[in-house]
Amino acid sequence: MRNLFIEFLTQLGCADRAHDIDHIERVVATARQLGEREGAELAILEPAAWLHDCVSVAKDHPQRKQASLLAADRAVAYLQEINYPQQYHRAIHHAIVAHSFSANITPETLEAKILQDADRMDALGAIGIARCILVGGKLHRQLYSSIDPLCAEREPDDNVYTLDHFFTKLLTLGDRMHTPAAKAEAQRRSVYMRDFLVQLQSELLSSD
Asked: 124: helix, coil or strand?
């Protein structure tokens, strides 16, 4: 059903390039790998992964916290349109609603936990750094604080500085993963991100 989902998503568009079809395909691939390892019901997990961002809301939009609920509702409506088996709709809806960090909803099923893990994994590592900078640029935020770039003596504020998002959210994700495989990979990617910050600081110090 890949082509069917891609056609649907392409028609809808996305709020920013960090949440485009490439992001969705990465989340689907990660969710499938985790799902096969953990014994999840792929008939629930895969459609949920494909459709988790089918309603795309910008990070600074007032409805940001409702985005996953809007996406879940739209996803189920679409699945009804294509006659996807109804017995999976409720579980797909829950998985999509619970995947969002900003919604702060606890996933109650294995499939919901895996989708949340897979989506958060895409915010880590090299791709996570790139996506963070993409979003920060779209929101016209400064890249870093020239006074204290790594928040050594100040509270991070990712509404002003893009790299502060590492400290307000991204580097906390590894401890919030549910599945063992996701926890291990998230820790590996988090190390890469910390190394990036060390390199950034060394370059800034050498330019003083």
From this structure: coil
Of all residues in the chain, the percent with pLDDT exceeding 90 is: 81
Query: Distances from the Cα of 91 to the Cαs of 25, 41, 54, 86, 188, in angstroms?
Result: 20, 10, 16, 10, 30
Q: Mean pLDDT, the chain, as a whole number?
A: 93
Q: Which long-range contacts (CB under 8 A, 24 or more apart) does 147-152 make?
A: 149/200, 149/201, 149/204, 150/197, 150/200, 150/201
Tell me the H-state helices in 1-54. 2-12, 21-38, 42-51
pLDDT in tens, 130-154: 999 999 998 999 999 999 999 999 9
Nearest CA to 119 out of 192, 38, 53, 36 is that of: 53
Cβ atoms of 139 and 155 closer than 8 Å: no
Length of the chain: 208
Structure tokens at 172: 């906390």
SS3 of the chain: helix, strand, coil, percent, to 5: 70, 0, 30
Q: Residue 142's beta-bridge partner residues?
A: 161
